[in-house]
Structure formats: C-alpha cells, structure tokens
Design brief:
The complex is a heterodimer of chains A (385) and B (429). In chain A, strands 1-2-3-4-5 form a 5-stranded mixed β-sheet, with helices on both faces. Helices cover 56% and strands 11% of the residues of chain A. Chain A has 385 residues and is of the alpha/beta class. The radius of gyration of chain A is 22 Å and the shape is globular. Chain B contains 18 helices and 11 strands. The radius of gyration of chain B is 23 Å and the shape is flat. The N and C termini of chain B lie far apart (75 Å). The chains are: A alpha/beta (385), B alpha+beta (429). At the A-B interface, helix 8, helix 11, helix 14 and helix 16 of A face strand 3 of B.
C-alpha cells in the first residue's frame, strides 16, 4: 500500500468517524479453496479487500456498514464504480463510497445515483467535513487518522509473536468470511487457543485483545438483531438456534452429540453438550447489550480506540481520550464484554484489570454530566432533588 | 438442629429470605426478634435491591440509591453498605467506589436469566446464619406450601421441639406466620398465601382432616391450575365450593365446566387487592392453557409455555395459530377482554389484546406455571423503585389503574361476540 493511498484511507476513516461509525482500515476478504488450488499451493485465496470499513449499530439493533474504496490513481474510475457496487453487495454494505485523490470521470458521477455509490474527491471530502461540525474529541484521537500511526499499528500486529499467527489470521481474514453465527463461538475459540501466549502487560497483546473485543461486540450486535427479529421473548431458545444457524443446524448438532455419546458409552442426555460451557454468561451478555442498542456503536468505537491507542502510545483511560463526551454506559458494557472474554477463554485475569483501568478507571459521579444517555437529565434531576 | 438441609435448595433459601424481609416490613426495626435474623434480612434486602437495579449497568449515585432503597424497598439505610458488599460477594455488582466510608458508585451485573435467588441462597449459607434463622426459613418455606396444624410443625420442618416456641414467637411477632384457633388446636398459615377467607380453613380441616387437605393443597401448589376432580380432590373441591380457594372454570370439549385450582402465594399484597384483576386474568390464562393441555379436544397442547411466549411476542403479533378448539378453549379470555378472536375460515386466531395489564397477566401466568408463584417483581414495588432510579430498563407503569370488572355483563358467547364486533367496528354498518 502506497503512503498516498494510506493517507487517503486515513481521511476517509476520519470522515466515517465523523459520521458516527466505528472503522477498520484494510479488511481483506478471502475464501477457503480446495487444497493445493490456491497460489503457492495454499488452501485459501483472496477475493479483494475493503480499504475502509465503517460499522454502526442502529437503535433497532441493525448493524449497518459502509465501505470506502480509496485510490490515488484517476484511471478506471468509471469501471471501478461497478466493481465497488459488486463488493458492497457481496459484503452486504448499506452504503459505498469511491474516493479519488484526483477527479473522477464525469461518467462515474453519472453512475453514482444509479449504483448507489457516492463519488468523493478531496474537494468533496473537505466540503463534507465542513458541513459536519465534527466531534470535539478529534484532537485527542488524532492517532486514528494519522496514516503513519495506522501503518505502525498494522506493522506492530503483523510482527507480533509467531505463536499468535492463528489469532492474527482469524482477526484479519476469517472473521469476515465465516457465516456470522459461527463467530460468537469462533472469537472465543481463537482467543482461548492463544490464551497461554498473551500477556496483559504487553501493549500489542492488549491491542489484540481489544481487537477481539471489537469483533465480538459486532457479532453480539448481529446476534441481538437476529433475536429481536425472531423470538424476542424467548432469548434462550433464539440464541441457541442462532449459534448453529437455525433450528435445523441445532438439531443436526444434537443428533451428532447423541451418536457420539452412544459411541463413547456416555450416559445421560448429551443434547446440552452442544452448547459451550459459557452459554449462560453469553445469554446474559446478549440480553444486556440488546437492551442498550443506542450505546453499541460507542462500544465499537471505544474498543477501536483502546486497541490502537496501545501502539500509538495513547494508552490513556477513555475519560482522557473523550473529555466531556464519554458514554460511561458504553464503557461499562465494553468492560462486560472484556470480562466475559477473559472468563470464557481463561485469559490471564490481568486483561480484565487492564480493561477496567482503560475503560472505567472511575465511575463518574452523577453530577459530572458524563454518560450522555437519554435518561441522564432525569438522573441528574433525581440527584439534585 | 434436626433440619434436613436438603429440604431447601439454594433457590428456595434465597426466595424465602426475601419473604422474611417482606414480612418484616411492618415490624419496628428496633424490635428484639430482628436481632436473630441478621443474615436472612441482609440477603432478603439484597434480593430486593438486586431486582431493582438489574439492567442499570452503572449506579452513579449510590447515596441517592440508598434513599430510594430505604423508601421503596425497606432496605435499611444503616445496612446499605453491607447489602452492597453482599451483592459484590455474589458477583452482582463490582467496582464499588467509596469516599469517607460512604459508597459513591458501582457497576451492576445482576443476571437477567441466571438464577438470582440460587446465588443469594448460597451466599446466605456461606455466611453461617444462626440456627434460629435456619429454622425460621424452613418454617416459612413449609407454610408456603400450605397451612399446617401447629402440633405438626416440629416434625414437618425438622426443628427441635424445644426451639419451636422461639421460632414461632419470632415468626408471629414478625408477621411471617398467622394462626387460627380451632377446637382441635391451632392451624398455622402464611400471610402471603392469598386465601379468600382463612376462617373457612377450620371447616375444611374438620371435614377432610389435615393430612388429606395438605396433600391436595401440595398438589395444587406444585401445579398451579390443577384440574380439580371431585373423586381425586374432594378437599380442594370443597375448599373451592366454600370460597377458600380461587378456581376459574373452562368449558371442556364435552361441555362440562372444569375448575382449575390455584393456591396464590405472593409477597405483593396488591395482587390480591387493587391489582386483583391482573391476578384473575393470570389465573384465567393458566386455566385456559391447562385446559388445552389436559382437555384439548382435537390435539393437546404440548408445552403451555410456548403458548404464553407466543402471546408475549410482538414479532408474532401476540397471536396464536388458528385451531378448531380455540374458540371454546379461550372463550373465558375473550370474555375478559384478554384476547380477541380474529376469524380464520371456520376457526379463530386468538390474539392477546396487548394492554399493560394483559401483558403483565401473561407474565404472571408464566411464573405461575414455571415456579408456582410470581417471581418477576415479587414485591410489586420494584417497578416504582426503578422509575425513581430512572433507568433505561423497561418500566411497567403502576397497575393501580386497572379497572376492576366487578359487574360482569352476562351474555351468551354468541351475543358477546356479536356485541364486540359492533363495538370494535367489525360489523357491517
């Protein structure tokens, strides 16, 4: 990736952040292929990558995403519009932007409305940013939008311990192409596999932990969205089904468990064995997050800041990074997710302490005006009264 | 102590601690009997407070909570710190910040699905409560199952006969046990058991004998909405006929009116007074699904909870699938305006009229079927406390506005349906 391209991505990231999204830069998409048929005999092959991805959770728990395609070269912008439309459809993105550092062709602009792909040049970007008042935390979060810091962060993760290769690969590639329901179990499984090699005092390991917390929050939001759509009053059943992609998948696993138990000569009903031992805690977590849909985007943003802040030497507590605008409910909920991951994966408890020191070093008092939730004025009234 | 500790599970222990706490609400906090019940009261207070703060995530001003908890939940303000510490020990709160000995704020992790009472029951046992506390809790638990002659208490509960007077004195002074004098002695019963007229107990005991009545009561207590059979449940049948027990009836396929018995046991007195309409609706709902379970007609209901979950589910429009038996089976609910019937060919599709009262009644019915007594919002004022705490949690407005259907319109089913069609604008003009 050229430095110019990365600078453009950083600008798009800032735009998405201003629009309220949590972001990821460079999300590669790849597929598993029959063994030996990939390049150099690998069993996987890349499709493409998303230059900048924005994720937001709506008040109805709908997980919305936006993608930005960034190129410094002006060539081929017309054809690229069709390509971006295809990628957006493949990924299920709700919106897409084609961003060029030079002007785009007039035809590309004509296609914008037809294809639902916005065209942005540096002038458009500036105009958009000018329209938006911006958030007051942009200065303390400058490291997120600095292309050098982005490059350093990516490099730091890639050069980490070889024993963490599986952890890295899942975060970078597999998470994005697995059927979504699998990720609630897969995030935990990958983190648990690497638990013995992760050190809560190692900044890159802490960054990786928050990267996983980000992925998990997204997956939890998708699960909560599914539950809201399917069976809101019976969360237990709905989550059990979701974990296996539906009732059919669940029954298949239960039959499998029965067959296995018979072969293994085990007594008792093995049907519940198909669920992970942390299922009760997972159910609690999904319930808790599902009730707080308005805070979930903030969870993602905080996990993003907490991860990248480790490497950018900005590992400061969230109240310092979001002075005057911290949503403390979101910080607490992210801490719940971190605590769950530590317990479910048997990570070093130091990760939970580290998370608390970053996310919720001190619960703000009622009079501070922190925690911009709809109920806060009422809460303050109670306290004043 | 002769108590058999396996008599009570941790869940029941936690639950009964809350009963004791609720029973003591009207008792002078400085009275002597309370000195024996320290751990039980603390766990009871913790259960009430945990239910009130569940879902708040962050309690920013614990001192404000202390005031609300004292006012609404009878959590003694002097015991507030201990109660929070107990909840911390149970893993229901964390990050407790103090200043000058006062708790300032904390974060909350009270479980939504996992059992609150089991964990609190374990904490109660870990605190090594006094023998009297154990005996009192067992007494309260035993009487939750039904009345008992005083002379049988020691054997039934397993307490030392020498302790019985002490335990009963505390229980009576704390309003946890009521008694009724009859010629043969004394009958003990729980004030939480909503008998319509406890005075009738004496007649039932005299007519059917203590053992027989208790056996039948235990069946109905364990299976709320028990289909009462004259041959198998003569004492219950008599108790219903005399007006001691509540028992709505539902018409069976062969045209008989089948009574279903309930033994109400609730800490929320309002459920038996100003919110009685909600309780009556809940009983009617249970009676209807029990009827479908036992006397379904074409097909029996497999699991009544599925029916109730469907009625609570807005994504399924609170409606059941059409069935040939539904018009008969849910007629009682149709007449009580808990359900509406939507035509579906020759059958009907019952749909819950999703008012707050009706939704509360279905939830209560769910608790009656699964646990045997109301669990959600046990003390009835948790919702008020939540409102005062101004959480984002779902708040049910107080149900005091429930209109009581004392004067029911006596119409035939057909006439009633026709009237409703006109009232609801479904009839041709």
């Amino acid at each position: 990736v050229s430095e110019q391209d990365l600078a453009l991505k950083a600008e798009v990231r800032r735009l998405f952040w201003r629009l309220g999204f949590s972001t990821k830069v460079d999300v590669p998409l790849r597929a598993y292929v029959p063994a030996g048929t990939g390049r150099k005999g690998e069993d996987r092959q890349a499709y493409t990558d998303l230059d900048v991805l924005g994720v937001m959770v709506g008040p109805d728990l709908r997980v919305q995403s936006v993608i930005g395609d960034c190129k410094t070269s002006p060539r081929g912008s017309t054809e690229r519009m069709f390509w971006i439309r295809g990628v957006a459809d493949f990924f299920g993105a709700d919106d897409a932007y084609m961003v060029r550092s030079a002007d785009a062709t007039a035809a590309a602009r004509q296609l914008a409305a037809r294809l639902g792909v916005a065209v942005l040049t540096p002038r458009d970007l500036k105009a958009l940013e000018a329209q938006d008042g911006g958030t007051k935390d942009m200065e303390t979060l400058a490291f997120l939008f600095d292309h050098r810091a982005i490059a350093t962060y990516r490099q730091a993760l890639q050069q980490s311990d070889r024993r963490l290769k599986g952890l890295l690969e899942y975060r970078e590639f597999d998470y994005w192409v697995y059927e979504e329901h699998r990720n609630l179990l897969q995030v935990v499984a990958h983190l648990a596999e690497a638990a013995g090699h992760l050190d809560p005092n190692h900044p890159i390991h802490v960054a990786m932990f928050f990267e996983y917390a980000w992925l998990y929050v997204r997956s939890l939001a998708l699960a909560a969205q599914h539950i809201r759509r399917t069976h809101l009053t019976d969360l237990d059943t709905s989550l059990r089904e979701y974990l296996f992609g539906g009732q059919l998948g669940l029954r298949e696993k239960q039959h499998l468990a029965q067959v296995l138990a018979r072969f293994a000569g085990r007594k008792g009903n093995p049907e519940n064995d198909v669920f992970p031992p942390y299922f009760p805690q997972l159910l609690e977590l999904v319930t808790r997050l599902g009730r707080r849909s308005g805070h979930l985007t903030a969870l993602l943003r905080y996990a993003e800041v907490a991860a990248e802040g480790q490497v950018a030497r900005r590992a400061r507590p969230l109240p310092d990074l979001f002075p005057g605008s911290l949503d403390d409910i979101a910080a607490k909920l992210l801490l719940d997710v971190c605590s769950f991951l530590v317990a479910a994966t048997q990570l070093d408890p130091g990760f939970e302490q580290r998370s608390r020191s970053i996310l919720l070093p001190e619960v703000p008092d009622a009079g501070s005006g922190l925690g911009a939730t709809p109920t806060d004025p009422q809460q303050a009234k109670l306290v004043d009264g | 102590m002769r108590l058999r500790m396996d008599q009570m599970k941790p869940f029941e222990t936690g639950l009964r601690c809350q009963d004791v706490h609720a029973g003591l609400r009207g008792v002078d906090p400085n009275s002597a009997p309370l000195a024996h019940l320290e751990d039980t009261r603390l766990v009871g207070m913790a259960a009430s407070l945990a239910a009130a703060i569940r879902g708040q995530d962050i309690v920013r001003d614990a001192q404000a909570l202390k005031v609300v908890a004292a006012d609404q939940l009878d959590v003694d303000s002097l015991a507030f710190n201990q109660v929070i510490e107990l909840l911390d020990e149970a893993g229901f709160v964390s990050g407790v910040k103090r200043q000058g000995g006062k708790i300032q704020n904390f974060t909350e992790q009270v479980p939504f699905h996992q059992d609150l009472y089991s964990r609190l029951g374990e904490v109660w046992a870990d605190r090594e409560p006094t023998e009297v506390e154990g005996e009192l809790l067992h007494t309260v638990h035993r009487l939750a199952a039904g009345p008992l002659p005083a002379e049988e208490l020691a054997d039934a509960v397993g307490i030392e006969p020498s302790d019985q007077d002490t335990v009963l004195t505390i229980a009576r002074e704390s309003d946890l046990v009521k008694s009724l004098d009859i010629p043969d002695g004394e009958i003990l019963y729980s004030p939480f058991m909503g008998f319509e007229d406890p005075g009738i107990l004496a007649d039932i005991f005299a007519e059917h004998g203590s053992e027989r009545f208790q056996e039948e009561l235990a069946q109905a207590r364990a299976y709320q909405g028990l289909p009462v059979d004259e041959q198998r449940h003569p004492a219950l049948e008599d108790a219903i006929a005399r007006g001691l027990l509540m028992a709505p009836s539902v018409r069976r396929p062969e045209g008989l009116d089948q009574p279903f018995a309930f033994i109400p046991y609730t800490l929320d007195r309002d459920l038996l007074t100003i919110r009685k309409a909600v309780f009556e609706k809940a009983m009617a709902i249970v009676a209807c699904v029990r009827c479908g379970q036992h006397f379904g007609g074409a097909t029996n209901i497999g699991n009544p909870l599925w029916i109730l979950d469907t009625l609570l589910d807005p994504t399924r429009s609170h409606a059941l699938a059409p069935h040939s038996s539904h018009r008969r089976q849910y007629q009682l609910l149709f007449r009580m305006q808990v359900m509406d019937f939507e035509p579906s060919g020759n059958w009907v599709r019952p749909r819950l009229i999703a008012t707050e009262d009706n939704l509360a009644a279905v939830k209560l019915a769910r608790d009656l079927i699964t646990v045997g007594e109301p669990l959600e919002d046990r003390l009835g004022d948790t919702a008020d406390a939540r409102q005062l705490l101004l959480t984002e949690g779902q708040y049910l407005t107080p149900l005091q506005t429930v209109h009581r259907r004392r004067h029911r319109v006596r119409l035939s089913d057909k006439e009633y349906a026709k009237t409703m069609d006109h009232l609801m604008g479904r009839a041709p003009l």
